[in-house]
Predict the structure.
Amino acid sequence: ASAQERLWSFPILRSRCAAAYGRCVQASTAPGGRLSKDFCAREFEALRSCFAAAAKKTLEGGC
Amino acid sequence: MLRPAGLWRLCRRPRAARVPVENLGRREVTSGVSPRGSTSPRTLNIFDRDLKRKQKNWAARQPEPTKFDYLKEEVGSRIADRVYDIPRNFPLALDLGCGRGYIAQYLNKKNSSETEIPTVSVLADEEFLPFKENTFDLVVSSLSLHWVNDLPRALEQIHYILKPDGVFIGAMFGGDTLYELRCSLQLAETEREGGFSPHISPFTAVNDLGHLLGRAGFNTLTVDTDEIQVNYPGMFELMEDLQGMGESNCAWNRKALLHRDTMLAAAAVYREMYRNEDGSVPATYQIYYMIGWKYHESQARPAERGSATVSFGELGKINNLMPPGKKSQ
């Protein structure tokens, strides 16, 4: 798989970081909730760091 | 024998300046059909058909294009089932928007991936059918009408080219199709960017489908709905497959760019909200199957008012009312 494909691979998306972001967004869809810009910014930043760390490992580990 | 003895396959191509109009007989078709109703030109131009042709051509040129055919194969076989359900011969049939052809192979006498029905392929546009009135006994169309801009007109043209007592059997994507993808993208885009734009095509509602078929002149309509769920490793694999099927978005109002952050966010939301037990994510394809007939005197009609010989009130005594010999029913 190309480096690009390995970056988008699903192990990252199965991580706790992804689940936390997903749960935050899903919670906003409950009755009375309201989703606005950056409502889950903290969780997304955590996800982005996870993703960057995994990407760095993938690129370093690959040829 | 219930299969069409001859088959025309109509594949997608917008009007090209190079081909002389007379050769296609288009003048005869378009002069005979005038669009009824007054829909404004704006609502009839949702999709960039030129782009759709390019997307389909790109998909066909990929290595192993048939690995994306699973959905169309399945729906094609279900349309063929419906053709078999009708106890009639169809000497001449048209497969509209056929792609690589997913229906005719199921109408063979024996199992095979190629059709044994003699076939002619024609490159044309679903909205401008190059056939004369009363040509076909059967018209089938599987999963291609959802990219048509003027659907009322396309259905009218299908009705026009059918012979009296001919039948149209079609399958189109319904409103619940890819709702998981639509919702995930909507939520992620709202959270990341403060607003969202449509990424999934608008689909025809099932009520509207009935009305459109009626307006086009079809009788004895049936519309039924089916859901096919396909599981994918994740949202990106789903989007890759949609692109491979030639089903990428081509609406004029599509956003040119989807930010990587938004894609990552959407994939995380998709997984959290919809994933299966085994970690895969489902995608729903809702299919509407429609059957409509072109009028012929031999077809059953509602009885005349006042011609009833029994009343509903006597339903309780139905055994007494039925002629002897039929009581076992």
Summary: Residues 22 and 57 of chain A are 24 Å apart (CA to CA). Chain A has a mean pLDDT of 78.
